[in-house]
Amino acid sequence: MSTQYVAREPDPSGFIEYPEADHRVWNTLITRQLKVIEGRACQEYLDGIKQLDLPHDRIPQLAEINATLGATTGWQVARVPALIPFQTFFELLASKRFPVATFIRTEEELDYLQEPDIFHEVFGHCPLLTNPWFAEFTHMYGQLGLAASKEQRVYLARLYWMTIEFGLVDTAQGRRIYGGGILSSPRETPYSLSSTPAHQPFDPIEAMRTPYRIDILQPVYFVLPDLKHLFDLAHADIMGMVQTAMGLGLHAPRFAPKAQPSKTTAA
Predict the structure, then answer these.
(1) CB pairs under 8 A, 24+ apart, for 36-43?
(2) What's the predicted TM-score (pTM) here?
(3) Residue 183: which CATH number?
(4) What is the pLDDT of residue 141?
(5) How many domains does the chain have?
């Protein structure tokens, strides 16, 4: 997939200069989304937001994020272009580095962007990287992916999608969101907790067998009994589950196939 976005390069000191228009987009996104997630995000995520203390008037520098992550779970963020191969992705996670593309969406694409930008990565994912359970699962996921075959990685990708990107969790306060793909989306945040999509108790094998599309609101979400379940899963036989899922095969998709662009012919 090609992209119109280009990641910004740091200067020799590691500082990344963004134009004022980019800072305005960040301000719009963070102020809006902090209101949307009220009463919807899980407490562990909110604790992470408080610890990161993200600026509202400008895009944070990666060194600022690293200072907090390093002090809490030993993680760091790593500057990447918009799109990276599976191999690079797993290598980064296996070394406790979370990929962050150093560009931000335009004002014309405020609500949705197919490729992950700095708002999605920093606001959506970095708060929970301060949590040891979430951080352990993400680290183990990277290590497993690094050793997995191409076919196994496809099943691991579905597990990542249904947890780290689009996961829900039951808490004493009610059902909450922990997936970064939801928490960075103004539309998907309320939708995910509504009665419109299906909600299933989390089962890793079922999650790996569930097809998804990246360009629609999800038709089904998997719900953890608690966030510590991710830590427990990190120490379970995930690759054995992958083999089971591969043997069982995929479920039928709960969505229509993506429309293909119509071909035109010259008159």
Answers:
(1) 36/186, 36/189, 36/190, 37/177, 37/183, 37/189, 40/176, 40/177, 40/189, 40/190, 40/193, 41/176, 41/177, 41/178, 41/183, 42/169, 42/171, 42/176, 42/177, 42/178, 42/227, 43/171, 43/173, 43/176
(2) 0.94
(3) 1.10.800.10
(4) 98
(5) 1
